[in-house]
Amino acid sequence: MAGVEAIDRAGYVDWLQRVGDNALILGHRVSEWCGHSPALEEDIALANQALDLIGQCQLWLGYAAEIEGEGRSADDMAYLRDASAFRNALLVERPNGDFGQTLMRQFLFDVYHLELLRALKGSSDPRVAEIAAKAEKEAAYHLERSADLVIRLGDGTEESHRRMQNALDLLFPYTGELFNDDDIDRAIAEAGIAPLPSTLKKAWDETVRAVLDEATLTHPGAVWQHGIKGAGGGRQGVHSEHLGYILAEMQFLQRAYPGAVW
Predict the structure, then answer these.
(1) Is residue 14's pLDDT more than 50?
(2) Contact criterion met (CB below 8 Å) for 94 and 32
């Protein structure tokens, strides 16, 4: 546990919240398709993905609460924080849009997520390595599904190709934030707990390019250089208005009936 003891506790909690909040917010977004997907198979698959992500979130935020040591639980962190305290990337809070946008958002995140979890299996913190090993299996399946659907729709009809290209052009600028390093990332990396986000970019881009080529989609490289690239940074507590809408729905029960339990 030397890696844990070597870093600032608040910084470690912040980093754990980043990983957990990505899973929480994306899981909630994906769950919005339950009962509304274009096909029954996709409805069930997306509901299961949402459950996977929420389960991962519970592990990450539960550990964050332990490290924090203030008696909070994973539920407290999920339901009793304001938007400014969330540390998720802006990409995962983007609206579902049409089915193509949902799939493209999922794919772009899945590639990053799987690379991160694979690296975290070698963490100096056994708890992080344990959670990552469990989550990796789910993330690998998520990526298999999202990549396959991006390829099938991108290289499908003229209409499906157009929608997938539009989704890619819309969402790609938000991916830059995933690979921005800050002081917390550097402290975590120095302690051997996690890699610097920037070190994941090369493998991420190779996988993304390979899938986009097979899907006959145009890689928006120019957008990467000149687009949003971080857009203020959800990880710094600066979010779009969309997170407020998500939390209003997600946290309704606890805010309407404080302390309610099942």
Answers:
(1) yes
(2) no
